[in-house]
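Quarterly update from the structural biology core.
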Amino acid sequence: MIFGRTVNAIFFVTLLAIHGIAQEATREAFAQGKRVLDRSVNAYGGLAALNAITSVSITVEGASVHRNQSRKPDTFDRTPYTGEVIIDLKNARTFQTQRGQYPGGFSWHQGFVIDAGSRTSFDLIRKTANQAGPAGLGIFRASTRWLPQIVLLNVLERAESLRYIGTATYDRRNHDLIDFVSSDGARLTLYVDQKTGLLSKFETFITDRFAGDSVLETLFTGQREVNGRIVASGRVTAVNGEITNDFRIANVIFNAEIQPDQFKIPPGLRAVTIATPALVTKHSDGIYTTVAGGYNVLFADLEDSIFVMEAPGNDRVSQQAIQQIKKAIPGKPIKYLAVTHHHDDHAGGIRAYMAEGSALIVAPGERAFFEKVSKAAFTAEPDSFSLAPKPLKIEPLTNGKRVLENGNAVAVEIYDIGPGPHAEEMLVAYIPAIKAVFQGDLLNRPANGDYPIANETSAHFLKWIDSSGLVVETIIPVHGPVTTIEELRRAVADMKK
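Predicted structure, tokenized:
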């Protein structure tokens, strides 16, 4: 009995010692992290100077770099970008506009306002504004990390989560690494230059649609003193070292006077509402579309199996689509999955269909890319394919075409329409029964039903239709409502005026 009590006492004392060591490690990680943070704060003028920043106005120029949105897989097309950012730190408000384009003539000029806990986005080309949605403090913080000073203010706001995690060499310079959990829930790691105390970059761990486990970096380049403040010359973002935005900070004004109308949407915009679409639409016997994640997905009954075209968004979007498809056509496997092109908004959920054992029908030049996608590691956020891996199956087109039948009738014809302004290879599906073409990005119509605006990609698509010999009456898009061939012709004609 005495021996048992002695053992219990020793165990209890040991447990207390271990607990104390763990507490001390946490305390030291915080204390060391706080010392690094204080040194960085001092490099930017000190705590009082940072807290005195109530507003910032920023003008940005540079390039959007189209990772997973270029004309070919694993290439990085660049297009011009300009932007203006106004941030009211005191009242958690921001007004931001940006102008740019995607390859193929897809120009955009848009923006958003966050004020009073809500976010309103607007389109300055179409002169429309969407309904406001909720935007808490976390969304505001995530939208406004444009400068090192703002990032440091975020850390100071959440200092209790601060930890020192080690050292690293970045850009041939030694850095101390600290991390914290931001108010939007992201865990950010900050690289603080050991020599200057300046914040060189911050990064966070994400799950990329194609690459899986990934690191998203935001780099502050060319920092120098201007009018008594340290100002970054550039802001660059990258995923796994692949640049996505390459911006030059053309102008910064701290504590500029705030005007009453600066946090309102621009005048003359038309408010639009977007009706909730039906989850599944039957176009004819055996031909359907389903809406998942705001995208249209085509599917067809092939008598003993199912054909699906497009895997947009991410794994969750594809899981939603698969659930709705199997409900509409129960008891049959999804034998085939085709994607129009490799862009991540159109094929980001492709691994869900790999998990289904579906044979992929992809453009020949994109095969190697999707083979690489199948090998990506998704350990932080396991997706369908990592949880239920299957042998990868890819089936080719024959002379740029593939025909799928339902019994003795042709259900779907898949065509590679050849090199275009938006993508080097592009697949479309022709459905003879309804004289319709299902396509992605060749003509996009706004979700509210406004008239489509054509571009050079749309003109290339129309030229292909006219040369194909197919009888086409209807265009079913991945993005937005259905359009008629007459509307496509009119939109292209308007573009050429």
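DSSP finds eleven helices and 29 strands in the chain.
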